Amino acid sequence: MPAIHPKLYKYIYVVIIALVGFTACKYRGNGPGRGEKPLISFKSIEGITFIEVARKQKNGLTFNEYGFHLSPEWRLRFVSEDSAALYSPVKKEFLNFPLALGTDSVFNTGRVFLRVKKMNRDSLLLDLLEAKEDSMNINKSRVSMLFYSEDHIKKLGTDTATPHKASKQDSAFIKSLAAKANTNIKKAFAAQHPVQIISKSPHVAVEKFKNKPSSLDNHFSTTDDYLDPNFTITIRNALSDFEYYFSAYVDAGGKMHFRRALVEFLGDKDFENAYIRQATGVMDSYLVYYTKVIPGETLGIKHASIITLRVKGIAKKAK
After folding, report:
1. Domain range list for the chain
2. What angle do CA 145, 146, 152 make, to 5 degrees?
3. Which of 66-70, 137-141, 159-163, 199-203 is predicted most confidently?
């Protein structure tokens, strides 16, 4: 999830307090002792480190139709009634975050709203709630997060560092998506192991954009690196100076197909047509001859996916 500037936290707390207050009022409006629900409490599991072992959609899948994969990423510890610690892969340590408690098992920490479904000293099952601006639907969740305590994991002999084998349901789903994408390239989806572009010439440099983590990212994810593979390719000793910015499909065989330009044309159709024609020419000549393209794949299945390219040509200087 994206980092939030420290100055914005005061606004987040206002939203949290308002939402928690609204939820509390909903159950306490019937008078004392009638329909009143207590605030969630983590006193019984304070100090226990929980490691996320599975994250799934409500349909049981860990992939969606766009190729996004729900990877278990969190390590969580409840420190006190108003503080929780989340592991930061960036700093290689647990960082404390405010913990806001609500009714009906709802709480907020690490900039997300969650709801407890099951809780004991061995495991924790949470629903990730959908919040938008100043509203939240406590009855709507598309994703569940399963945690095991460190001690429970040791008893099970499970290695959380080893990726879990894909379920039969996930495998069947990806096979169906790949079949569609390889039949109709416009149904391309993000590859878990994205496209690779390798230079075959000393005059061609290929640079792939990589997300840079922020120290505020308590659960930094690199999903954007595979959801939107972004390359800058610089060609020296080109026939002329040029620069084109566009997206392309890469099919299961590694062939690139122009998708669309990523610049504004302001209604100038002639310029737009010329730009597309020239960008396609650069892709079908320089990139075909001077780079090797390895197609993306998910669960070992090669399939069509989409990449973003910024191609720069630098003309050879006259002596």
Report:
1. 6-165, 183-315
2. 155
3. 199-203
Q: By C-alpha distance, which of 160, 182, 179, 159 is closest to 171?
A: 179
Q: Tokens at residue 197, please?
A: 């572009």
| CA–CA dist 201, 291 (Å, integer) | 7
Distances (CA, A) of 311 to 90, 140, 184: 31, 43, 26
- Token duo for residue 282: 């650069």
Neighbours of 4 (CB within 10 A): 14
| CB-based contact 241:314 (threshold 8 Å) | yes
Over range 120-133, report the average pLDDT: 87
HSE of 231 in the Cβ direction (CA atoms, 13 Å)?
Answer: 24
Written out in words, the top-level CATH class of the domain with range 6-165 is mainly beta
Distance CA 143, CA 156 (A): 25
Encoded tokens for 174: 């990806």
Backbone angles phi, psi at 270, to 5 degrees: -65, -45
Which tokens is 33 given? 């002792």
Q: Is residue 203 within 8 Å of residue 290, measured between CB atoms?
A: yes
How many C-beta atoms surround the C-beta of residue 282 within 10 A?
22
With DSSP H G I counted as helix, E B as strand and the rest as coil, what are the percentages for the chain, rounded to 5? Answer: 25, 40, 35
Among the residue ranges 14-23, 50-59, 169-178, the one predicted with the least confidence is 14-23
Owner of token pair 């002329």: 240
- The Cα 97–Cα 109 span in angstroms is 6
Confidence at residue 132, expressed as pLDDT on a 0 to 100 scale: 67
Q: Are 245 and 310 in contact (CB under 8 A)?
A: yes
